[in-house]
Design goal:
By secondary structure, the protein is mostly helical. It is built from four helices and two strands, in the order ααβαβα. It is 52% helix and 5% strand. The model has no long low-confidence stretch (mean pLDDT 90).
Length: 115
Amino acid sequence: MELGANDGLRGLPLDQTRTNLQSILDKVKAKFPQVKIVIAGMMVPPNLGKEYTDEFKNIYPDLAKMNDAVLIPFLLEGVAGDEKLNLPDGIHPNPDGHRIVAKNLEKIIEPLLGN
């Protein structure tokens, strides 16, 4: 699960983002009790201030711990900020960036799948 980056970019209250994400987790766990949850962390640019940025970043590890989920600290690790790996908007990965994201995800998800 990865969600919330647009909330952060819009400057929504962080308690609302946290509540929304937890609500999604609760619904998934209620419907699929044996599910293995993977939470992919995101970050926001620092333009909303250090306190907001730091608290936003902490939402993901906090929810992972509370929900016994696997955490990917930052979904765009190795891609964010590299203009060669992003679309002209500077935010969304291009095909080369997506390949790196996919490899990063594979390292986390493959062991959870077992054989």
